[in-house]
Amino acid sequence: MGSGEEIVENSDNFLTTKIDKPIYGIRNLKEHLSTKFLSEILVITDRGTPISVNLPYSDVLELMDILDELADLETTVTVDEARRAIKAEAKGIPVSNLFNRIRAKHK
Fold first, then answer.
1. What is the total count of domains within the chain?
2. Host H or E run for residue 50
3. What is the pLDDT of residue 35?
4. 29-30-33-38 Cα dihedral, nearest 10 degrees
5. Residues 78, 86: contact at Cβ < 8 Å?
6. For residue 34, what is the domain's CATH number?
């Protein structure tokens, strides 16, 4: 962790029980904020109640890419088809063939 003391809140709050990351009280965070902290996922609390989650920039970019893919109807349809094929125990295809098909559709 960073130079500050890690404070793990004892809470039944959904966020603090579902995110397995360090949890810092806002006062502790203000006192010990450093760039090392900024490269980690942090749950920030105010009196034990989660108020913010700090994500590294690279994680935010990844999430934005995922959201863009989810917003694309063609990608969603392709994923749904793949899920149905897996449930039907279809035989797989090499991933290179799949990428070639996707590239051909986007030309």
1. 2
2. strand 49-54
3. 63
4. 60
5. no
6. 3.40.1620
Confidence at residue 36, expressed as pLDDT on a 0 to 100 scale? 61
Element (H, E) at 96: helix 95-105
pLDDT band at 57 (very low <50, low <70, confident <90, very high): confident
Q: Is the pTM of this model over 0.85?
A: no
Residue 81 located in a structural domain: yes
Whether residue 49 contacts residue 13, with contact meaning beta carbons closer than 8 Å, is answered with yes
Q: Which structural domain, as residue segments, surrounds residue 22?
A: 14-56
Rounded to 5°, angle at Cα 56 from 53 and 62: 105
Distance, CA of 101 to CA of 106 (rounded, Å): 9
Whether the Cβ atoms of residue 44 and residue 32 lie closer than 8 Å to each other: no
In a domain, 88, yes or no: yes
Tell me the pLDDT of the chain averaged across its residues.
76
Q: Is 18 domain-assigned? A: yes
Which residue is associated with the tokens 């996707």? 102
